[in-house]
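Exercise 7. Predict the structure of MBL fold metallo-hydrolase from Methylobacterium brachiatum.
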Amino acid sequence: MPGYLPFAGALKLPAYTCDNCGFWQRHFEAPPSCPMCLDARHVVPQDGWRFRTAREAQDAFPCHWQELEPGVWRFWNEPVSGIGPSAYLIQTEAGNMGFEGCPVFSEAALDQIETLGGMQVLSASHPHSYGALVQLQDRFDPELCLPAADFTWSAALQVSWPYDDVLEPLPGLELHRTAGHFDGHAVLFDRARKICFCGDALKFELDPADPRRATTISAHKAFVRGVPLTPKELERYRQVFAQFEFVQTWTPFEAAKNCGQREVLALLDALLASRPHAAPVPLNSLLAQGR
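Solution. The predicted structure, encoded as tokens:
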């Protein structure tokens, strides 16, 4: 049954966040290492491990929030160490959904979410942007929807709604597994607003004069290491992104209002037409080519 915890003892352990990447673990003491930093998509800290408690992270990393679109809120930390993704809260008539996690939520940020109606459903695109999902689960006890393919990364969490490839946890909000960047990497499509929350499937560079306007777009297996996706991974991306029409594309770091399905499919077609690469591609050149 939803919300049933047959073995919740591990969730009572203290939670610690890695100062190098922001990945949270539950442990009886500061963990000996961080599995996310040891993964091939990341790098280990050059000066050794440092782990912070929630309170220490709250004191070190101020939390901010803003309503970017009506009913869509962004939460982020600045300044921050580690990867530093944003968290999104999406309000609907059927309830609120959280997608992605910022590195740490302040008590004021959690109170703001409470004021906005709390959180009935929670998910994330992949482990790099789990952030402080542990705080959201501890405070609001939402249904946590994560792809079964990334279950091994969720030890600090209680997954209540695992899924394979597609899930609609609230009316109008669709989760689609792309795989690629991670085996369970997924995107969230908001049908009403036509926004695709694309996780790390895509990366943008923004116009300094207009931070909501993307100038380049790229796709990668490992952004830090510059590893491209394979043709089969790109083909799966294309199959997923072709299923729904979106006019905006938001990553955990950027919200590009000028990039939608047409631009994303143009990038994927260009990468599939030659040797795949992870280099940024100017958006205007993609559109000029008529792809």
